[in-house]
Each structure stands twice: as C-alpha cells, then as structure tokens.
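ok here's Small ribosomal subunit protein uS17:
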Amino acid sequence: MPKRVLQGTVVSDTNDKTVVVRVDRAFTHPVMKKTVRRSKKYHAHDEANVAKVGDVVWIEESAPISKNKRWVLKPSA
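and the structure:
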C-alpha cells in the first residue's frame, strides 16, 4: 500500500528537527451543499532543519518517530 503524501504550510519550526505543518482541505457539505474548509496540523520530521515558517512543503507518512511524529518532510525535487 502506498504511503500518503500531503501538501501543507509550515506554521512552526521552533523544535529541533521537527516542523508543524497545517494541511487544509475543502469539501462539499452533504446537506447544505456549501464548500467547507477544514485544516489539521501534523508534526513532521525535518532532519536538516531546512523548512521555515510559511514554506509550502510535502510530507509523507512514515513509521512512528516519536510520540507525535508520524510524518517526514519529503525532499524538494
């Protein structure tokens, strides 16, 4: 089964080798038929500390790295 890959914006880079990424999604409400926007934050592993606040990054699912980290920063192509 392939690993999930999400695109999001870095909202925090305070921690060493960790970034917090906000992933936004939009969907149509099943009853109201309006577009609803939701966001979720993910802790991602950033080995080289390259990501800064405001950067748009891709994160990939991984085995647990710590209590909260289950995602790693994908290297830019």
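+1. The chain has a mean pLDDT of 95.
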